[in-house]
Design brief:
371 residues; alpha/beta; Rossmann fold; two-stranded antiparallel ribbon
């Protein structure tokens, strides 16, 4: 029997084996009879995790319309996918393989977005603060309208923490409770996609070379994560930036010179991931009473792509829906592709639900080590 700690973390696991192991994830979720691994789950980041925080903002980066959410019972909710995000799948999904059951967190329901004004019962289970187009820097993504940048997400979390203090009766009780929760953040993508590599961003590129820009981001990110610790977080998972040069939008815009992806863009974010790993090492030393994990988005993204290539369906790297040439998002009320499991990307930037569901258990070993 493979242990929970080692499952999906072995170097010998082949893409085909991974597909066999996690394919059940696409059709299954926790049945509510399990006790969640943690009492609450707080989510920060960008459109990869957003579950509706942008719905009422004045922005192009919102997707509370069809065909988004076509595979969710609730329909369009503001998720930038046809169904679940990776953060959703981490919350509720589990995988099954020859008698081995490996739940992720085991929650019965999705974590509500902050913008939905969750009630006292809901916030004790967790809140999703993620916002489409948002980044570590305040200015990132603002060319398309409003978003909730990471610093504002933390201020929103301060409101939640204050409410939990009131609910539980004291700051001591609240922080003891919050210290048992999982905090996950996926940020930094838009600081590149919707800031540094924009054609109009020549000033910031002239001011900072790629390594200097990564240093700028990590300095700000460090202050933000330190603030999260001050607010009671003790189990924190930070996702690196994935190979954003493999998104349909950047491939169409920049070209690949015959390569599968825009390699120059993928190399651009390497300094950020390297510095993020160092930051996590520093945080572990600074806060021995807390646990921090690095979620290797490049490795997981590569494995998910390999699963698609080895699976029985044809792999498509083009969007599943008709996309806007301005935003790269699905055009409202259009009919998407019918064979969604054969598409890695839902629109020009975001993965399909199946890709997200396959990614979730691959992040599981790193998450489990801090629970």
């Amino acid at each position: 029997m493979v242990s929970r700690r080692s499952f999906l973390h072995q170097s010998w696991v082949s893409p085909l084996f991974l597909f066999v192991v996690v394919v059940a994830l696409a059709a299954s979720s926790a049945d509510g009879s399990r006790t969640p691994r943690v009492p609450c789950y707080f989510i920060f980041g960008d459109s990869l995790y957003d579950s509706g925080n942008n719905n009422n903002l004045n922005t192009l980066a919102k997707v509370n319309y069809s065909p988004y959410g076509i595979d969710l019972p609730a329909g369009p909710t503001g998720r930038f996918s046809n169904g679940q995000t990776t953060a959703d799948a981490i919350a509720i999904d589990f995988f099954f393989f020859f008698g081995y059951e490996g739940e992720i967190l085991g929650f019965k329901d999705f974590i509500p977005p902050f913008a939905s004004n969750p009630d006292d019962r809901q916030i004790l289970v967790g809140v999703n603060y993620a916002s489409g187009s948002a980044g570590i820097l305040v200015e990132s993504g603002k060319q398309g309208g409003d978003n909730v940048d990471l610093s504002q997400q933390l201020r929103n979390h301060e409101v939640t923490v204050s409410r939990i203090v009131e609910i539980l009766g004291s700051k001591v009780a609240a922080f003891e409770y919050l210290g048992q929760c999982l905090y996950i953040c996926n940020s930094g993508n838009n600081d590149y996609i919707n800031n540094y590599i924009l054609p109009q961003s020549t000033a910031i590129r002239n001011q900072y070379n790629p390594d200097q820009f990564a240093a700028l981001l990590i300095t700000q990110y460090s202050a933000q994560i330190n603030r999260l610790y001050e607010l009671g977080a003790r189990k924190v998972a930070l996702a690196g930036i994935s190979n954003i040069g493999c998104t349909p939008s950047l491939i169409a815009t920049l070209g690949t010179n015959g390569a599968p992806c825009v390699n120059s863009v993928n190399q651009l974010v390497v300094p950020f991931n390297t510095r993020l790993k160092s930051l996590i090492s520093q945080l572990k030393l600074s806060y021995p009473d807390a646990k921090f994990a690095y979620l290797d988005s490049v490795r997981v993204g590569t494995l998910v792509g390999a699963v698609f290539r080895f699976a029985a369906f044809r792999i498509r790297a083009t969007p599943c829906c008709q996309v806007s040439t301005v935003t790269g998002l699905c055009l409202p009320n259009t009919v998407p592709c019918s064979r969604r499991p054969s598409y890695l990307f839902w629109d020009a930037f975001h993965p399909t639900e199946l890709a997200n569901q396959l990614a979730a258990p691959l992040f599981f070993p790193a998450i489990q080590r801090i629970l």
